[in-house]
UniProtKB/TrEMBL annotation:
This is Uncharacterized protein. The chain crosses the membrane at residues 6-24. Residues 39-62 are annotated as: Disordered. The keyword Membrane applies. Residues 41-50 have a biased composition (Pro residues). It comes from Phragmitibacter flavus. Keywords: Membrane, Transmembrane, Transmembrane helix.
């Protein structure tokens, strides 16, 4: 019975440590390298190559 209590105690200790470390790692870095790698690339801004203007379907002007 004592082995069961020690096993449960160690399991709760490891789970608590995981939660604390996970929340600490999420709080410190908002933009990790993995997240930034998934972002789309911005097109180059050249003076001779203006961005095309897209009409919004919500703003119809005559």
């Amino acid at each position: 019975m004592e082995a069961l209590a020690v096993t449960i105690f160690l399991s709760l200790l490891l789970a608590g440590g995981f939660v604390i470390l996970f929340l600490g790692s999420q709080k410190g870095t908002r933009n990790s390298l993995e997240q930034e790698a998934l972002l789309p690339l911005d097109p180059p801004q050249c003076p001779g190559n203006p961005q095309p203007k897209v009409k919004s379907p919500h703003h119809d002007t005559p």
